[in-house]
Amino acid sequence: MIILDTNALIYSIKEKIPLEKFISEEIGIPTSAIRELKKLSVKDSNARLALETTGRYKILNVESSGDRGIIEAAMKYGGTVITNDRALTTTLRNLNCRVTSVSKGVVRKI
Length: 110
Description:
Elements lengths: L1 E3 L1 H9 L4 H4 L4 E4 H10 L4 H9 L4 E3 L5 H12 L2 E3 L3 H9 L3 E6 L2 E4 L1
Parallel strand pairs: 1-2, 1-4, 2-3, 4-5
Antiparallel strand pairs: 5-6
Helix pairs in contact: 1-4, 3-4, 3-5
């Protein structure tokens, strides 16, 4: 399972990176990220487009919000988190979770 963070999903939309091209596993998006996209979509067209793409992914129910929601999803569902957030990356690594980032047109290992 691949778990998408809000910033990675928005970045992939902004840079026109087809995540499915690089990912062969099931992709999940935590409900915390969906809530965040809804808030951001009011003023950000990339967030609005990212929100529209969430229907293609498995919805991962979490109670926490923000980064805690991503961490909760990683702990609950396992898999690899895609994020460009360095602080979240450090936290996830400290919890022995796998982390990847997306940049320059590719999904890469951190």
